[in-house]
Amino acid sequence: MKLEGTLMRILLDAHVHTNSSPDSSLTPGQLLERLKTKGINAVAITDHDTLDGYRRVLDTKGFGEILVIPGIEVTTDLGDVIVIGVREAIVSRDAFEVVDRARAAGGIIVAPHPFDWKRASLGEKSAMLGVDLIEGVNGKCSREENQQAKEFAKAIGAPVVGGSDAHDKAQVGAVVNVIECEKDLESLLAALRKGANAIIKLGKA
Q1: What domains does the chain contain, in order, with CATH numbers?
Q2: How many Å apart are CA 112 and CA 58, to the nearest integer?
Q3: In 150-179, which positions are buried (b, 16+ CB within 10 angstroms) versus exposed (e)?
């Protein structure tokens, strides 16, 4: 939907795992079908320690009207770190090295599910690393965990982003970001650095 000039209303799921992640069953074809069903026009592919899923999505016909953002969820010694906007994999156990390499490559650094201690999460170490965004709404976190993340983001002055953290078709689009920008990768990444205009929980329906 056009807003003014070339500005568009972008609905972005910023945290999706294809079956290039060992714990996900989501194929590129299933992802495409779900995005179209939910009316989502942008997605960040954030597989665990690989960009293979992003490349497979780009090779899948039908994604022409959907902005596909390269990303990777890196397993580090301090917890999981998502890097968005890089086309070469950053794989290191050293969280500070991941951040340095991501910055050098122009990537956006996100602390995913920061206060979910059932998973490897950064928690307050997010501030020490100087992440760009805090994932304030994660589709798999409890309301309390997400609230803690949002309060922490406010305390350190970090913008907030949301993501479904989808690992299967039904989870795609459970959380989307509303962003107003031109519909191209560079514009979306620039807008994303400032955080979402709004984060909407759509659920699995």
Answers
A1: 7-201 (3.20.20.140)
A2: 24
A3: bebbeeeebbbbbbbbbbbbebbbbbbbeb
Determine the Cα–Cα distance for residues 176 and 113; give it in Å rounded to an integer.
Answer: 15
140: tokens are: 């798999």
What's the confidence (pLDDT) of residue 5? 53
What DSSP line would sit under 37-66, residue for residue?
HHT--EEEEEEET-SHHHHHHHTSTT-TTS
Q: From 166, 173, 139, 168, select the one nearest 38 (Cα to Cα).
A: 173
pLDDT in tens, 93-106: 999 999 999 999 99
Name 172's Cβ contacts closer than 8 Å, sequence gap at least 6.
13, 16, 26, 30, 31, 34, 35, 38, 40, 43, 164, 166
Residues recorded for the chain: 205
Between CA 65 and CA 42 the distance in angstroms is 9
Under 8 Å between Cβ of 171 and 139: yes
> Is pTM, for the whole model, over 0.85?
yes
CA atoms within 13 A on the CB side of 47: 24
Using alpha carbons, list the distances in angstroms from residue 25 to 13, 54, 66, 169.
Answer: 17, 15, 21, 8
Separation of alpha carbons 19 and 35, rounded Å: 16
